[in-house]
Design a protein that fits this description.
The protein has 138 residues and is an alpha+beta fold. It has one domain: Glutaredoxin, CATH 3.40.30. Helix content is 25%, strand content 18%. It contains 3 helices and 5 strands. The protein has a 5-stranded mixed β-sheet. The structure holds FE2/S2 (inorganic) cluster. FE2/S2 (inorganic) cluster binds next to loops. This is Metal-binding protein.
Length: 138
């Protein structure tokens, strides 16, 4: 989602624009270490997150990735705001798909590019692995 301009070249209303937020879901994560289940649990989480976003926040982008180097704490996902912070989560369950979308909406509407603690789903509090500052952080 790009709210900085429109297809006809005119600037959009930046007062109502939300920054781009993407949820990256690891489709390769297994349900547990050594599991041979196919499709993998990460693929199920990816599909559930896409369904949740379609209902809750169609402007949030969902992307599939293969391995976020968080395998032992998977299923894993990342919520990244283009001009803000990036959050890595682990130990996610299928029922957390909507929570990921809620987290994406929270960070999209925050004034400082951080995901606010208030209103954040519990799984995004307990299962946060890391947060990464924006590229231009001072
Ligand atoms: S396979 Fe999902 S984090 Fe490595």
């Amino acid at each position: 989602m790009d709210f900085q301009g429109t297809d006809d070249g005119q600037e959009s209303d930046t007062a109502t624009a939300k920054p781009a937020v993407t949820i990256f879901v690891c489709a390769s994560c297994r349900a547990s270490e050594g599991s041979t289940e196919e499709p993998r649990q990460g693929t199920h989480l990816l599909n559930a997150t896409m369904e949740a976003a379609a209902q809750q926040a169609p402007d949030v982008t969902i992307k599939s990735v293969n391995c976020l180097s968080n395998c032992k704490r998977g299923p894993s996902a990342v919520i990244a705001r283009q001009d803000g912070w990036t959050y890595v989560f682990g130990h996610l369950a299928l029922e957390n798909a909507g929570d990921l979308v809620t987290g994406a909406e929270l960070i999209a509407t925050s004034a400082d590019g951080l995901m606010p603690w208030k209103g954040r789903p519990d799984c995004l509090k307990r299962n946060m692995i890391a947060r990464i500052p924006p590229f231009d952080f001072n």
